[in-house]
């Protein structure tokens, strides 16, 4: 095959992938910005009556605003935009976040794909169930993921940690990355992240003191505001234990113990990977901790499967890389969690096979973490070209 024929074939394949991605996104688009509507209501409440922030609902919807006040402050400009413009803007920003995620993650691979391949990979990644659901809901998951990855992996950035702290102020689950900075010995970044997070909390008390007090003392612990814990879309330890035990209240001693064990083991693994030079894998495992340990982790919160999948692919070469990446990708495109019966608490009656499929994200995440742990063996680390000239992992 000549070079011209090869380029033509690559362009054709890329165009086909992009067209298929667009077509399938249209077919699976079903949430019409539902979460963005909640964000806008929160932003509007901040502009009009902050005391009603956690009581108001979008018209025709029962979902209340559940994030810290700082998140509502950031959503205030979105609230004044016309709805079509706000929804379009959320999609554009999320697409930009996907591009940034790819840019940040690519150095983990020993070989950089050609530009056309990157375009195809970008388009194909939009079909990952967590990614396409985030786009459809008008969610902020991809933006937070991109912010955290950029902040954690850009070692030359003097303000490292601030992005993580702000992300935690918007949605509490990124707090695990603050702990990650601490256990990896990145003290200055840890202090900046902690200060940034506390600044977001203080901003809430300045804008609406009583509402902020209500959030941090009552609402933050009210998991019933978020939705049905048993729903198959809740791919957290809490959701799994609710479906397994039938206790719709969730939580309990078993869940707390599981969360503590997951956090300790996950942070240990993240630290070990970071010190071994596998930085993307370290941060991705930390993202996995956040979705496993949160009381509610809807499937669209699992956007961390994108950097986690790249981390897994980086452990292989040649055809094995393609096979591993393909299997990982396929699992999150077909999304087995939606196969068993769901809604109206039918999840409480799943049999063994339905439990396996309906909790697939948990099993895949745990399997990925276990595999990355096996890569810490000295012989495997010695075979990783990207580690040859790694700078010191401890930052001043």
Question: What is this entry, summarized?
Answer:
With 396 residues, the chain is mainly α.
Task: Characterize the structure shown.
The chain is an all-alpha fold. The termini are far apart. It has a domain at 31-81 and 158-221. It has helices spanning 3-28, 34-48, 69-79, 83-105, 115-125, 129-137, 141-153, 162-170, 175-183, 187-207, 209-217, 237-245, 252-275, 279-293, 305-313, 318-334, 352-358, 360-374, 378-382. Helix content is 65%, strand content 0%. It is found in: Cell membrane. Pfam families: GT87. Keywords: Cell membrane, Glycosyltransferase, Membrane, Transferase, Transmembrane, Transmembrane helix.
How many strand segments?
0
Helix content: 55-70%
Global morphology? globular
Number of helices: 19
Mean pLDDT, to the nearest integer, reads: 89
Strand content: under 5%
**Topology as a string of helices (H) and strands (E):** HHHHHHHHHHHHHHHHHHH
Q: Sketch the major β-sheet.
A: none
Structural class: mainly alpha
Q: What is the CA-CA span between the terminal residues?
A: 52 Å
Outline the low-pLDDT stretches. Answer: 1-5, 385-396
Rg over CA atoms, rounded to whole Å, is 21 Å
